[in-house]
Design brief:
The chain is of the alpha/beta class. The protein contains eleven helices and 15 strands.
């Protein structure tokens, strides 16, 4: 799609093509293009160091690590999760033959509301799958306390939380496992790609089997695994992008500062400030439109912006719980999800990426500040 005159919600961080070509030449020369090649091994090591996590396993996208984490932890029955996310979160529960149970979110983070989790626990509950929505850390301490009390596993969908730290520690170290997406639209991308973060070498070994059909060696299959390995071309691309990601996050930070300066005090427009002690990645910049106070509904503003060539996105509208696969569940009743239902009707994610010019940012602000 030609988006030359459009300011899109994001734009992929791309490595220098000459550097990439040089790595492609190495791949061509080696003739080793997938199945745990040299760049795959290098990227796992480099990412574990960059992110500050003990073990990581690369995947072909950010959806299959969710599926595999649930399988690896032998999750059955019911899984408590949030309706305010990309649909892959809930689909992974469904694909494992489990029942998703939706719990409302808290307004302050858009993450699952810890106050409402216990009421959703039944004898069939085995796990909680929260999302660090927009890269804002969930209340991990309270979620872990509930999980410990009831003997539940916690798998964080951290697709948005690349590089996010709380008091110097990676948010990916929380819970039993965390998943990442390296899709082109993410802060750090490998075109398509993803990863699973785990705490010990045995679990990494098992995950590495599961993402390779369950093969443990040449002739033994230990479980019905899937094929979700990352290839060498994308691992090479990922190594190059890792060198650029800090500068990209800082460029996003500067855009966030401009947005906040311009939008603070605009009646009916709410946004997030940085959280104390958190290293944010500025993956998204959601604003929340209070139609009464702003004098225009979210959709009126959204379509006005589009007419002017500013393509924000309404992440995450509609709620996952409203899709036909899930809307019949008791927990999908909007009365059970009042905050998520309201927020989904208020949100617009403004364009946010490393390549926005000052002029782009001003144009976006001018659409909102009448
Ligand atoms: N969990 C969570 C919480 C997630 O948000 C996601 C994915 C997942 C799990 C699953 O991870 P993956 O399996 O996808 O790795 C996008 C992404 O496809 C998806 O990865 C992402 N979340 C979701 C929130 O957004 P779309 O349909 O909104 O993307 P699209 O194609 O409309 O692109 C948005 C804009 O980005 C375009 O207007 C222009 C720009 N763009 C996009 C692409 C693909 C480019 O400039 N170049 C590109 O190549 O879903």
């Amino acid at each position: 799609m030609n988006t030359d005159n459009i300011i899109t919600v994001t734009s992929p961080l791309l490595p220098d093509l000459r550097d990439f070509n040089a790595m492609l030449e190495q791949i061509w020369a080696s003739k080793w293009v997938t199945n745990n090649g040299q760049f795959h091994r290098q990227l796992e090591k480099a990412l574990a160091e960059y992110l500050g996590v003990p073990f990581i396993s690369l995947f072909t996208n950010g959806t299959l690590p969710l599926l595999t984490a649930l399988q690896a932890l032998r999750i059955t029955g019911e899984v408590i999760t949030t309706p305010y996310s990309f649909v892959a979160t809930t689909h992974s529960i469904w694909w494992n033959g489990c029942k998703p149970v939706f719990v409302d979110i808290e307004e302050s983070t858009c993450g699952i509301d810890p106050d409402k989790i216990e009421a959703a626990i039944t004898p069939k509950t085995t796990a909680i799958m929260p999302v660090h929505c927009y890269g804002k850390p969930c209340d991990t301490a309270r979620i872990q306390a509930i999980a410990d009390k009831y003997g539940l596993k916690v798998i964080y969908d951290a697709a948005h939380a690349f590089g996010v730290k709380v008091n110097g520690d990676s948010v990916l170290n929380q819970g039993d496992m965390s998943t990442l997406s390296f899709h082109a639209t993410k802060v750090y991308n490998t075109l398509e790609g993803g990863a699973l973060v785990m705490k010990d070498a045995e679990t990494k070994q098992r995950i590495d089997y599961l993402k390779n059909f369950g093969f443990a060696g040449e002739t033994e299959v230990v479980a019905p695994g899937i094929n979700s390995k990352m290839d060498e071309v994308r691992a090479a691309y990922g190594l190059l992008n890792l060198r650029l990601v800090d500068a990209s996050i800082e460029a996003r930070h500067q855009v966030a500062i401009r947005y906040r300066e311009a939008l603070r005090g605009i009646s009916g427009i709410r946004f997030f400030d940085d959280m104390p002690g958190v290293r944010h990645n500025y993956s998204y910049f959601p604003i929340f439109v209070d139609a009464k106070a702003y004098g225009m509904t979210r959709d009126e503003l959204y379509f006005k912006m589009r007419e002017q060539g500013v393509w924000g996105r309404r992440y995450f509208y509609p709620l996952i719980s409203t899709f036909s696969t899930y809307r019949g569940l008791d927990s999908a009743n909007p009365e059970n999800l009042p905050v998520a239902t309201r927020i989904a009707d208020e949100v617009i994610c403004l364009p946010m990426h490393h390549a926005l010019s000052e002029g782009d940012v001003q144009k976006i602000i001018d659409c909102i500040v009448k």
